[in-house]
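Need residues for this backbone.
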């Protein structure tokens, strides 16, 4: 089988290359899947790139998500021919992942593909899209306030899917981007307002600013999250999903929480229980406009991965990179 293998040499240098390897090298698991599609997420960029990022063991096959067809199964929930999707559970970091023609995983980590979703569409959504859906569900549970919902890192993977879902659900979406050339793309996904990134990255000493946003899905953190928190409407919520702009939240932090009752909701897609993943995938099949999905897709093959891994870490990738593992 062909796989993208990341290796580490004696000096600690890592390298990634496409190799033909024996299927017997696959890790243990109850279900063997013929992988059809995987994707490039921010974490994959870290795992492919120099230093190996989040990789726990070498040699390693990255790819934090995949969709494909069950080839063999020791678990009664799955039989050969079933279409499945996998996200999370440290697959692609601690367990070999989706950048290979076959994957062997625990049955508990899989979800049956919802009706109407192809393996390619499932990966156009992927971990980023699942996370966007989980963030929307968390905001709904908390109660969205009137006014635009802000999406940061909007031209990226999570941001693109979040924009399309929120717009389909009838919300006004304000999309924050550092790439002015992506305005038409974001408006086509349903954004009603474009906010230039640099309007929100300057750190101010003000404890609060004018109330603007009825909710927020934040992929960026850093200085931007510090500013956004001060602009949230009374009682509204921010679903924090990522830190593409830095791990620290900067600015006068406590005021939005105690003076405006703002909620900061942490979203983790990795350890989501089966029922939550199933619900999120079924909402995706229902609430994500499939005609918008194709505009987000950049197709790729295993051979393209080293270059794309570097690009995503620089914030250069638009939407979702879908890797045809069979090509
Ligand atoms: P992408 O690289 O596709 O998108 C991130 C976007 O953030 C970029 O496209 C860019 O958008 C913006 N951005 C990048 N760098 C900066 C910066 N320095 N300052 C401000 N904005 C910046 O990544 P994903 O959407 O796949 O993931 C986003 C984050 O979410 C990552 O940190 C990732 O690890 C995390 N994540 C977390 C998950 C979870 O379970 N919580 C699951 C999936 C991802 P633009 O050009 O439009 O400004």
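Answer:
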């Amino acid at each position: 089988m062909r796989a993208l293998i990341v290796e580490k040499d004696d000096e600690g240098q890592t390298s990634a290359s496409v190799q033909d390897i024996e299927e017997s090298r696959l890790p243990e698991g109850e279900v063997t899947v013929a992988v059809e599609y995987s994707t490039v997420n921010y974490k994959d960029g870290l795992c492919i790139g120099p230093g190996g990022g989040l990789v726990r063991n070498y040699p390693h096959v990255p790819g934090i998500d995949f969709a494909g067809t069950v080839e063999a199964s020791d678990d009664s929930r799955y039989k050969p021919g079933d279409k499945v999707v996998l996200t999370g559970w440290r697959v692609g970091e601690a367990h070999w992942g989706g950048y290979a023609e076959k994957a062997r995983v625990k049955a508990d980590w899989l979800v049956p593909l919802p009706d109407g979703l192809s393996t390619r569409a499932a990966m156009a959504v992927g971990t980023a899209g699942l996370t966007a859906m989980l963030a929307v569900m968390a905001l709904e549970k908390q109660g969205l306030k009137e006014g635009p919902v802000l999406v940061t890192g909007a031209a990226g993977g999570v941001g693109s899917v979040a924009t399309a879902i929120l717009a389909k659900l009838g919300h006004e979406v304000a999309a924050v981007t550092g790439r002015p050339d992506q305005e038409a793309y974001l408006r086509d996904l349903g954004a009603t307002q474009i906010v230039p990134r640099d309007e929100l990255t300057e750190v101010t000493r003000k404890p609060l600013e004018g109330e603007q946003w009825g909710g927020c899905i934040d992929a960026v953190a850093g200085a931007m999250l510090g500013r956004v928190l001060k602009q949230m409407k009374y009682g509204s919520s921010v679903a924090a999903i990522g830190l593409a702009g830095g791990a620290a939240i900067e600015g006068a932090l406590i005021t939005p929480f105690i003076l405006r009752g703002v909620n900061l909701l942490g979203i983790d897609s990795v350890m989501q229980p089966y029922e939550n993943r199933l619900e999120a995938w079924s909402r995706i099949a229902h609430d994500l406009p499939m005609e918008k999905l194709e505009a987000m897709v950049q197709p790729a093959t295993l051979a393209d991965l080293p270059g794309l891994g570097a690009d995503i870490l620089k914030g250069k990738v638009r939407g979702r990179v879908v890797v045809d593992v069979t090509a």
